[in-house]
Amino acid sequence: MIKGNMKRHREYWESVRDYDKEVFSVYKALRSNPVKAALKNRPKKYKVAYLGVGSGFMLPFLSRKFSKVYAVDFSKTLLDRCKSEFVKFENIEYINADFRDLRKIKEKVDIVISVNSILPPSIKDKMKILKQISKMTKRNGLFIGILPSADVVIYRVMLEIDNLIRKGYSEKRALKKWEEFLDRKSFSPLGFHTDDYDSITQKYWYPFEIRFRLKDAGFKSIKIGKAYYKWSYCKDNCYGYFPGKEGSWDWFVTARKK
Ligand SMILES: C[S@@+](CC[C@H](N)C(=O)[O-])C[C@H]1O[C@@H](n2cnc3c(N)ncnc32)[C@H](O)[C@@H]1O
């Protein structure tokens, strides 16, 4: 069952007090930052939009690198925090908006970046967001995203089950334990995942769906890779701990506007 509409999502993000403690930090977790790498040789004159500011980790980097940065978020709390922390970065314009309606940004940009911020489970909301992104991107402009991976939840469960079997559990008991985990987390095969504490369902993505929906929204040359996380960070942050095994990942996506 999907819990929480977009209003509830916004309330959740408004309520975050200590961002670094309460929220999984993609940037602390990443082994290396593919978003920065993808932005490396882009012209200074470019205008970019960063969707979902969170703690604002990327904003100083984007501000130094590009002529104009639109920092967009529906959480006024998070935007205000970034605004006061990054006062000296004068080319950042803060836009308080829901990604489903980005008309407040009056010009098209060269690059739109979203790091784990396209999260609504509703197909209608997801498509609205992707179409808005497409609309605000110049022809042949770039979408660069990290999208939560649905596969990695099942990957973790596989590793955990194998671990229990190695410890002497019967296959049946091991499976039961981790099926219960998926139930508790309300993980759905459709890639929905309900946060235990806040009762909002967020979208986790499969590569075929990313390709399908980006194409539908007007993108081409869609490339999907893995943005790997460090086991040392994942350990206490819901992805398990399996050093030596392939790391957990979210999807790193680039696409061009048709
Ligand atoms: C998981 S955080 C990611 C933040 C940042 N990109 C990072 O990786 O550290 C999601 C961010 O997107 C914002 N957000 C989520 N859905 C949104 C929406 N529909 N419209 C505007 N902002 C949204 C949240 O307020 C939050 O700042």
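^ S-adenosylmethionine complex. The mean pLDDT is 94. Residues 80 and 127 are 28 Å apart (CA to CA).
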